[in-house]
Amino acid sequence: MNTKLLLTPGPTTIPERITEAMQVSGLHHRSQEFKKLFLEVTSGLKELLGCAHNPVLITGSGTAAMEASLAGVVPVGAKVLVLRAGKFGERWSEMAARLGFKLVELEAEYGSTFSPAEIEKRLLNNPDIKAVCFQYCETSTGAIHNAAEIISLTNKITPDALTLLDAITAIGTLEVNISELGADALIGGSQKALMLPPGLSFVALSDRAVQMLEQVESPAYYLNLRREFKSQLDGSTAWTPAISIIAGLKEALAMIREETPERVFMRHAQLAEATRSGLKELGFKLLAEECPAPGVTAAFPPAGINADELRMKLLKEDHIQIAGGQGKLKGKIIRVGHMGYVFPGDICRLFEAFESVISNR
Amino acid sequence: MNTKLLLTPGPTTIPERITEAMQVSGLHHRSQEFKKLFLEVTSGLKELLGCAHNPVLITGSGTAAMEASLAGVVPVGAKVLVLRAGKFGERWSEMAARLGFKLVELEAEYGSTFSPAEIEKRLLNNPDIKAVCFQYCETSTGAIHNAAEIISLTNKITPDALTLLDAITAIGTLEVNISELGADALIGGSQKALMLPPGLSFVALSDRAVQMLEQVESPAYYLNLRREFKSQLDGSTAWTPAISIIAGLKEALAMIREETPERVFMRHAQLAEATRSGLKELGFKLLAEECPAPGVTAAFPPAGINADELRMKLLKEDHIQIAGGQGKLKGKIIRVGHMGYVFPGDICRLFEAFESVISNR
């Protein structure tokens, strides 16, 4: 029997090396040994993300890091612009509303991205916005947004607004450099291209975001970004951290360094391209044809094929797990994750399975 | 060389069986397989804690579960009574203040517990309190508080007040039955007697706490207890959960069932007793002499011995890690964790090391 192949857009396959590195029974988070490990991990992330400050690690899912960022660098009650084109964009909106921010939204269709002219209009009409929140890659649709352009527009029209970029499904699949992008908060998670189990997330901050940390009174206690930022300067966390995943992250960063980030990003671009052309050949219709992300591809199956049945067959007959649609796309699409520890052979295996399922129906 | 022995009050030693059970690369949290695992875990916890509802799992440290509980079942702005006698009691106060609750406190000395008469007075003077927050065992001092008595006093004098019990260092070291105690929220964490890495916590709720969940508008988004409670009824989590630790928790609960909870609790009582009498024999002075917890023992070293130097020697020469003091006890005490995967041989090894360090000075 074939081993199980996980091709979902998070969680992703955890390589043996990382599984071994996570076996740290006996490691205490207040020990010198752990502090050293912690600072190695944050400086490794800092290098990968091109930031001036060590990213802040949060024990929690990516959503926790989104909330810590928003509440940490933007004063509650301020007006924020959310750009949404999928389930995770909606999460920014829902979160901002729940936390008491004034919400302005720009919505684009699932699978598409935002028109720069529309963004410009929203910014011009709302000179008092204090933050723009969006996704680099929208995991629910497989779309990539033009982060550099959105940030540059924001910095031009509303220079006081911070840009908060959920890069959870982007980091490790393409170059994400906070300084080059000019973003103020860059959010990542463990269970995507970093090849780790879920339960750890992080936030990289710009200089001015660090300044805002000092000024903003976050309503959060556990997710208080200022407290974590200060505490982590010397390798201590405010609360007991996810020690095993942090130990795994050190190994993940080492693996990326060994392959070199450039080759890792190239591999993702090639896997994404192969997935897209393979799907099109089989008669699938890509959801984000115009703006495809390097880490995940979403597509409508050919006429007569039910997306969820296809997924179930793949899982049952071929031990390959892909994802389905979320929100209003539930039951309508399939999503293939090709990020992290994924190689051309895995995509070949996926397409052999697709072909056999489709030809045998 | 001796293998490293971790005798800190969390994190604790992770048994091989659990390490293996946590290797779940390929397990997706939206799969039927995971939902089944999740419901097995929550019903196992439910059985262990004697509650009517499945406990809610939170991906985060114990502090995250404390915050989710407080903000989830008590309306912000309400008056809460915090009983504090150590660092974790102070954490309740700090958290309640940060979240916008009106704070009434009863403080006891580090190492001691609360006088029932004083509790009664606070309750009588504050008939409008909506919650009483305290620890079952105070990890920073090794003291146990009389949870049953405190809850019974609260229910008698201020029957509308909920009781929120941080049982992080208690669960798995002694019988903690939410129904018998009459508590409304019981908070636990992974990295104590449950023998797991940190990064997962949970909250068990009483019937009326579940009712309050519906009425209270929690300001939290990620730590929104109502959302998690509802979502988890069918084994789904609101956010991506700490899959690997949840898989480990299933194994931990199986290990406790195999040994039987009664024997696990008896083992903890015996380890605690052996630790206390051993320390006294060596001239240590117990910090919580009158109210010692079964999972952790804190003590002042004999005259002329520096607590931190003793700890460092133990670590360097004998590869045994114990903890030091926290807060105002920093540098003054040692704390020995004897919870989870700890057996009489480990305590023997600790005392051989103590004796050799003390006699060789």
Written account of the structure:
2 copies of one chain form a homodimer. Chain A has 361 residues and is α/β, with parallel strands linked by helices. The first copy, chain A, folds into 2 domains: 5-12 and 261-359, Aspartate Aminotransferase, domain 1; 16-257, Type I PLP-dependent aspartate aminotransferase-like (Major domain) (Aspartate Aminotransferase, domain 2), CATH 3.40.640.10. Helix content of chain A is 43%, strand content 17%. The first copy, chain A, has 13 helices and 15 strands. Chain A has helices at residues 16-21, 32-49, 62-73, 87-99, 116-125, 147-157, 178-181, 207-215, 225-232, 243-259, 261-281, 307-318, 344-359; strands at residues 5-6, 56-59, 79-84, 102-107, 129-135, 137-138, 143-144, 162-166, 185-189, 200-205, 285-286, 296-300, 320-321, 323-324, 334-337. Chain A has a 7-stranded mixed sheet with strand order 2-10-9-8-5-3-4, sandwiched between helices. Chain A has a 4-stranded antiparallel sheet with strand order 11-12-15-14. The longest helix of chain A is centred in the last third of the chain and has 21 residues, at 261-281. In chain A, 58% of the residues are buried. The model of chain A has no long low-confidence stretch (mean pLDDT 97). At the A-B interface, β1, α3, α4 and α10 of A face β1, α3, α4 and α10 of B.
